[in-house]
Amino acid sequence: MAKLRHIALAVPDPQKAAKFYSEVFDLTIVEPTHSPIADGVYLTDGTICLALLNYKTDEAAGLEKGKDWIGTHHFGFWVDDLDAQRKAIEDNGGTFFMDLPHDKKSLYYEMKFRDLDGVVFDISEGGWVGARK
Q1: What's the pLDDT band for 102 if we cut at 50, 70, 90?
Q2: Strand (E) or helix (H) holding 17
Q3: N-terminal to C-terminal alpha carbon distance within the chain
Q4: Which of 13, 37, 80, 132 would suit a FRET pair with 122, their CA atoms being 20 to 30 Å apart?
Q5: Is residue 131 part of a domain?
Q6: Is the peptide bond before 14 cis (omega within 30 degrees of 0)?
Q7: What average pLDDT does this structure show over 35-44?
Q8: Residue in 133, 91, 89 with CA at minimum distance from that of residue 113
Q9: Which domain holds residue 119?
Q10: CATH code for position 82
């Protein structure tokens, strides 16, 4: 069974947002992230990873929203089998968006998809920092 364990918000100032969420909801700040597509901060409630991300380019954020868009960007499911889950997604009309990082052997490798309405979500066998399966 898939488990919802990751939510990402596009924010203009990840540090400021992390301070807010950690103080208001007692989330733990796990670590910063500095990837080719975004800078941000990962937080956790002990089960779910909340990623607060500032995207560097319109392409990385999704061209229809752009890097300056603020809001819920995507969420993720921790799955047992990436290939089987990808097949189920695509068989039901979902479309592949990108994988990140591009090295599929990375612990935090994930595949990003769009649902029928264009909402971005990702799947991972390794999960996300701060999340528990």
Answers
A1: low
A2: helix 14-25
A3: 10
A4: 13
A5: no
A6: no
A7: 94
A8: 89
A9: 3-124
A10: 3.10.180.10
Please determine, for residue 100, whether its predicted confidence score (pLDDT) is greater than 80: no
| pLDDT score at 6 | 94
> What is the SS3 assignment for 117?
coil
Residue 131 has a pLDDT of 87
Flag whether 79 is in a domain: yes
DSSP helix/strand/coil, 87:
helix
Is residue 118 assigned to a domain? yes
Do residues 78 and 6 make contact, with C-beta atoms less than 8 angstroms apart? Answer: yes
Query: Looking at the chain, how many residues does it have?
Result: 133
The span from the CA of 69 to the CA of 48, in Å, is 23
Q: What is the DSSP code (8-state) at residue 27?
A: P
The structural domain count of the chain equals 1
Which value, in Å, is the radius of gyration of the alpha carbons in the chain? Answer: 14
Q: Classify residue 132: in a domain, yes or no.
A: no
